[in-house]
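HUMAN: Can I see a protein plus its fold?

ASSISTANT:
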Amino acid sequence: MDALPTMRAIQAFEAIARCGSVAAAAEELGVSAGAISQQLRKIEADLDVRLFHREGRTLKLTSWGRAYYPKVRAAFDQLRRAQQSLVLSRTRRSIVLSALPSLALWLRRHLLRWRATHRGVSVSLIGTDRESALQEEGIDFRLCYGKDARKYDRFAELFVDAVVPVCSPELLRQHPVRSEADVLAAPLLDVVWDARHRSPPSWAEWAWSVGLSSQEPKSDLAFSQADAALDAALCGAGFVLGQISMIADHVRHGRLVVPIDRRLMLPEPYFLAWDRDTLDRPLAAEFRGALIAAGRQQATLSTGSVWGS
């Protein structure tokens, strides 16, 4: 009972029942009427039932055929929908990118540049800390941190970021900085990440790096999200060890200031990840290349002293 008729025979039966005649089924399937009749005889022999009876020049489903056809039709409809979905997925002119929320500002500039040169292509950015099953969730690329990249089929390093003390201009007027010790004496904001990631450099590490390891920096507020700590710094709540990728735009426009440019590198890189078949889609490989190039540019900014443009 598990042995099925051939797919050609089932397809011929479904086409005859749907189109109403052997000739119409043959035209749709691009074969001769004789070939369709042969497949009909074959499926009836395999199932050991008559599926059609002839009324004049037309074929009518028998009671067995009426019982069999709805389920076969449903199966072929599902196959057609699956093919349509696959074709649409491969040809759609859109990119869906999932990224850590803290990198939304960095990505925004590059996505705007991409859109300016690719009119008619939509780009969607999903900000989430959760690592996703890319194709199952309709996501083309994921921007992730550290060892999380190993969860994906393919990945490439974007950049290793750095942190530097940064504050609002108003706070700097209240707490002038002439040396590294002055930074540590001001209100401090800390960033402590989720346990699955190695946290960015702390104030204690920064103090050690500038030769002030004897001091014990004490933060006034701690945040699990780097962007939340940055918002607090923008509001004048204190100094934060801000990531270059996140603060560069604020520094260029004077919303934040870097009184002492002494940087520490993050312990791990950021990565761009994608599934094995993602690059089969139009523009996907070009989009990946643009983000990798942007990552190289960011790597230069994070390790240098120029804030870009």
Q: What stands out?
A: The mean pLDDT is 88. The longest strand covers residues 94-99.
